[in-house]
Sequence to fold (227 residues):
Amino acid sequence: MKIPVHAGLLSLLGSLTIRSLGVTWRIEWRGLEQIEKARMISRQVIFSFWHGRLLVLSYSHRNRDIQVLASEHSDGDLMGRTITWLGFGHVKGSSTRGGARALRELSVVLREGLDVGLTIDGPRGPRGVAQQGPIELSRMTGSAIVPVSDTARPRHLFSSWDRFQLPHMCAKVIVSYGEPLLVPVQADDGERERLRILLQERLNELTAKLDRSVGYRGPNVWPHENS
Fold:
């Protein structure tokens, strides 16, 4: 599929919509001490989050020059253009297609002292299953991985594979960081797999805890297994 002719205009409108919606949210921050802990490990960090919760983060972490990996396909390119208007850097690539090249480009970004953001179950899932990308990136660069997630009430959950969350106007929004982790450069395949599962568990637990904290129950709680 080719990029629409007016992708630049669409991305600008998308960013304005996110800003207009986000300015009405009442945002609460949790776990900020985890960022301080991560900065003691490495100057730069790898923010890791689920694809379905990226909308809030695109607003809450705007204008920080965080470099985000976005697919080269039309939808990913449009998202990359949109977040650029919000003050993010846009690294083209995929954790599944051309993953080695994408990791090399992100490692350069991290060594230059910039933070990176990764949707670790994207771009096609399965939902709530971490890919190996952030683990390899941490091992290559010595950068700490910081799980980050969010919840909102009221909100709409789409029926997409990622159960994409769209907070309503004036919603209560909570953004929270989890315990950072670092992958040793000498980690073998077994250790890297153990740490991948640990990251997955921490981010799933963090997201579910946030949902429950605002009163959601049953299939409204991440990972929405019965919905």
